[in-house]
Design goal:
Layout (H helix, E strand, L loop, with lengths): L1 H40 L1 H4 L3 E3 L5 E4 L51 E2 L2 E2 L8 H4 L2 H16 L26 E2 L1 H6 L1 H7 L4 H10 L1 E2 L10 E3 H14 L1
Antiparallel strand pairs: 1-2, 3-4, 5-7, 6-7
Length: about 240
């Protein structure tokens, strides 16, 4: 009996010591070490890849897209626009952030198509029709054409790149293709009373190539581009 109680006590004491040791190592030392290395070697990324404006104020993250809208919720056309933000859906808890749910639309590639082809935009009339991928893409393309055509520059349907009319897998992509950024140059110049050459130079300065020269696609970070645009308009 005494031996059994003693063995049980030793096992409990050993288990308690292991618990304390593992708690200190895994719950204190390891997190502090990882945090220290991250702050020292990857300070910016460890703190959310924050982007600051000319005044040093944090205005967002280079990893998450933002909306550039007016007081009525419509696209504010004096700013460069990002990809459509059609994620999993809206939330009813915090309506300030409609895309708090990150994810794709989950619509199939032939959603709204007939015989494998999307019909003309006018054919989509009902609410169910307007929930299809075809309608979303076609209406987004028409909006890009209408918004970016100016007196001296007319956008054609064939000019609109895919990322201008489709959301990313997360719905929160912070970047657009160089082609989509170039397409917006004339509209940005007109709305901000700048020359096309000024805006094109700004866009070219913010183009990022493929990672290591061969991975991924060239991109333009919209937030960084709009910060540069704000600085340019202030100087002008």
């Amino acid at each position: 009996m005494n031996n059994s109680v003693g063995n049980t006590g030793r096992l409990l004491w050993a288990g308690f010591r292991a618990l304390i040791l593992l708690t200190v190592v895994c719950g204190v030392i390891y997190p502090l070490a990882v945090t220290g290395v991250a702050q020292a070697a990857f300070h910016g990324k460890a703190n959310g890849s924050e982007i600051k404006d000319a005044d040093g104020k944090v205005v967002g993250s280079s990893l998450i897209g933002q909306s550039y809208t007016d007081k009525d919720g419509n696209p504010d056309l004096k700013w460069f626009q990002g990809r459509p933000q059609n994620g999993l859906g809206e939330n009813s808890v915090n309506t300030q952030y409609k895309l708090i749910l990150s994810g794709a639309t989950n619509l199939s590639g032939d959603s709204g198509a007939k015989d494998g082809e999307c019909e003309p935009l006018a054919a989509y009339k009902s609410e169910d029709d307007k929930a299809t991928l075809c309608y979303r893409v076609l209406s987004a393309r028409q909006a890009v054409i209408d918004d970016n055509s100016t007196a001296t520059y007319k956008v054609k349907g064939s000019d609109v790149p895919a990322d201008a009319v489709t959301s990313s897998g997360s719905g929160l992509d912070p970047a657009i293709s160089p082609e989509y950024a170039d397409l917006q140059v004339y509209r940005i110049a007109e709305k901000n009373h700048l020359s096309v050459a000024q805006v094109q130079k700004l866009v070219d300065a913010h183009k990022d190539g493929r990672l290591l020269g061969f991975m991924g696609e060239p991109t333009v970070n919209v937030l960084e581009l709009n910060i540069g645009l704000e600085q340019l308009t202030q100087k002008s």
